[in-house]
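ZP: hey, is the 5-O-phosphono-beta-D-ribofuranose complex queued? I don't see it on the tracker
AM: it wasn't, my bad. submitting now with these inputs:
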Amino acid sequence: MIESALHNQQALSEMKNPQVGIIMGSTSDWDTMKKAEEVLQQLGVNFEVKVVSAHRTPDLLFEYSETAAERGIQVIIAGAGGAAHLPGMVASKTHLPVFGVPVKSKALNGIDSLLSIAQMPAGISVGTLAIGPAGAANAGLLASQVIALHDEDVRAKLIEFRRKQTEKVLSIPDPREM
Ligand code: RP5
């Protein structure tokens, strides 16, 4: 387990200056979490993507969380479903802001994921987003807004994104015109 965690860590260090880390508990979460990737790509934020499971690869979880800041990561987006312990555990091992995305589960439609992520004890914070793709997209936006505090290029893209979004809605005031 530790050997494979170190191997994965080596692969991580080969990525170019990621500002945001997108992690998720399973490859099955990717369909949801790729919405965060799309937003970061659109806004010109550098990021990395990695499967890190709280339960199946706990050593990697510790290593990832403990080394993220020193590798230049500024925000972590963590998606998980069911017993969604990944965001909270990552938050407990880093001072970086962690945004949790509840992935929609088969058994309970993501209510389990949402409550697992949201109900953190006072002292360790996770910013919890909506269940599913909207939550993943908004995690990408929120992470970009943090980066935009000190990155002018990202800030300009973010403001332009918001302007276009508003313009698009205002351009079709009557849904029958669509
Ligand atoms: C969680 O268990 C993952 O985040 C995923 O949402 C869920 C199911 O994982 P798989 O069984 O599809 O790998 O740890």
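AM: back. The beta strands are 20-24, 47-51, 75-81, 98-103, 127-128.
ZP: great, adding it to the tracker
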